[in-house]
Amino acid sequence: MGLSTHVLDTMHGCPAAGMAVTLYTTQGEITTLVKRFTLNADGRNPDGPLYDSDSLKKGTYRLVFDVAGYFKSRGVALPEPTFLDQVSLDFGVAHPEQHYHVPLLVSPWSYSTYRGS
∠ CA(112), CA(103), CA(94), 5° rounding? Predict the structure, then answer.
């Protein structure tokens, strides 16, 4: 249970190893930094869940993914300004006793997300 994320690079067909991600809690316009991390070889947080089931609280959160930085580090030629730079996903946790998994499927030109299991 808790909160987790996973990023897949749909351009190269692999996990987005090395992508920088930031997690915040949000209350209206106020954001509070929780954690910064770099995705491991599997495209996941190397420390495991972002929150375990005891720490996850009802509320709103934001994950920010450094998409442009990741693709530039892979040698992808991107225009300036980039089409996607930072991808921010704002989401709510209504039932903290459940598992909230927030995957991101991303290329330099598009992204998709959903509530995973």
Answer: 105
